[in-house]
Specification:
Layout lengths: L1 E3 L5 H10 L5 E3 L13 E4 L13 E7 L9 H10 L5 E5 L1 E2 H10 L1 H7 L1 E4 L5 E5 L1 H20 L10 E4 L3 E4 H12 L4 E4 L6 H7 L10 H4 L7 H13 L8
Parallel strand pairs: 1-2, 1-3, 3-4, 4-5, 5-9, 6-8, 7-11
Antiparallel strand pairs: 8-10
Helix pairs in contact: 1-5, 3-9, 6-9
C-alpha cells in the first residue's frame, strides 16, 4: 500500500491523481504521525519540520533541486534529507513552470498597457518544469517501489537521488516574447531593480539554470512544454482585458 502525504497541496494532489487506481492508496492532508498497517511506501511531499514521521519500508521524498541550495527553501529540505533512511528515494524537484506563470501573469496588465515587461531577473534564466511531470515521476517511483517490495525485493530506486530540473529555461526576454504573442503587441523586457531575497538573486546570477537533469529518463514521454503552462496562465488572465489574449 502507498500512503501519500500533503494531498491538500497541488503537488500531493497531482501525485494522488497520477497513481489513480493502479495501487491501494491512502491519502492524508498533512504529514502522518502514524502509519496504518499495510503501508509499504510513504510519499512525503514536503519537509515535516520538527514533527516525527514514521518511516515506511520505503520512503519517497519530494525535495528541492540542487540548484536551489542558495535559496530560502533549501535548509528545510536538506535537513529532511539528512533524516531519511538510507534506502529512501529523494526526488529533487525543479522549479515549477507554474511559478514563472504567476510571475508573468501578474504583470500582464502592465505589459498590455505599456509594452514593457519588468521583473527582477537580470540577465538570468530559470529552468522550469510542469508540476504534473514531477507528479508523474513521483507516482512512477512509488508504484515501482511498491511492486518491488511486494515481490520480496528492495525498491529499484532505493538510495537514489534524482535531480528533476526542467529542460526549458526562461528569462525576461522569453517571458516578454510570450506576453507579446499572447497580447498581440510588441513587449520588451526591462530588468527591474534587484529584489530582496535570495531566490531572485540566484536567478539573476544564473545559478538556477540547469545543465543536466534526470527528468527525461523517468518520464514515459517528453516533458510537457513549460512555455505552454505559462501561456495558459497569461491567456486566462488576459480574458479580463478587452480581448488582448485570444
Amino acid at each position: 500500500m502507498i500512503l501519500i502525504s500533503g494531498v491538500s497541496g497541488r503537488l500531493g494532489g497531482a501525485i494522488l491523481d497520477a497513481v489513480g487506481a493502479r495501487a491501494d492508496v491512502l491519502a492524508v492532508a498533512g504529514h502522518p504521525s502514524t502509519l496504518p498497517s499495510g503501508v509499504d511506501v510513504l510519499v512525503l511531499t514536503g519537509p515535516p519540520g520538527g514533527a516525527a514521521v514514521p518511516w515506511a519500508r520505503h520512503v519517497v521524498y519530494a525535495s528541492l533541486a540542487g540548484s536551489g541550495d542558495g535559496t530560502p527553501l533549501a535548509p528545510a529540505h536538506r535537513a529532511t534529507e539528512a533524516r531519511l533512511p538510507g534506502t529512501a528515494t529523494v526526488l529533487r524537484n525543479g522549479w515549477y513552470a507554474e511559478t514563472a506563470a504567476r510571475l508573468t501573469a501578474a504583470r500582464a496588465d502592465t505589459a498590455a498597457a505599456s509594452g514593457v515587461f519588468t521583473a527582477p531577473l537580470g540577465a538570468g534564466r530559470l529552468s522550469v518544469v510542469a508540476r504534473q511531470d514531477l507528479a508523474d515521476v513521483a507516482a512512477r517511483v512509488a508504484l515501482e517501489s511498491a511492486a518491488d517490495l511486494g515481490a520480496g525485493r528492495p525498491s529499484r530506486h532505493a538510495g537514489r537521488t534524482y535531480e528533476l530540473e526542467g529542460v526549458t529555461a526562461v528569462g525576461g526576454d522569453e517571458l516578454a516574447g510570450l506576453l507579446g504573442w499572447v497580447l498581440g503587441r510588441r513587449v520588451r523586457y526591462e530588468p527591474a531593480p534587484p529584489a530582496r531575497g535570495k531566490l531572485f538573486e540566484s536567478i539573476a546570477a544564473g545559478r538556477l539554470e540547469a545543465t543536466s537533469t534526470d527528468l527525461t529518463a523517468l518520464l514515459p514521454s517528453a516533458p510537457r512544454p513549460a512555455l505552454d503552462v505559462i501561456e495558459r496562465a497569461v491567456v486566462a488572465r488576459g480574458r479580463r482585458f478587452g480581448g488582448a489574449a485570444g
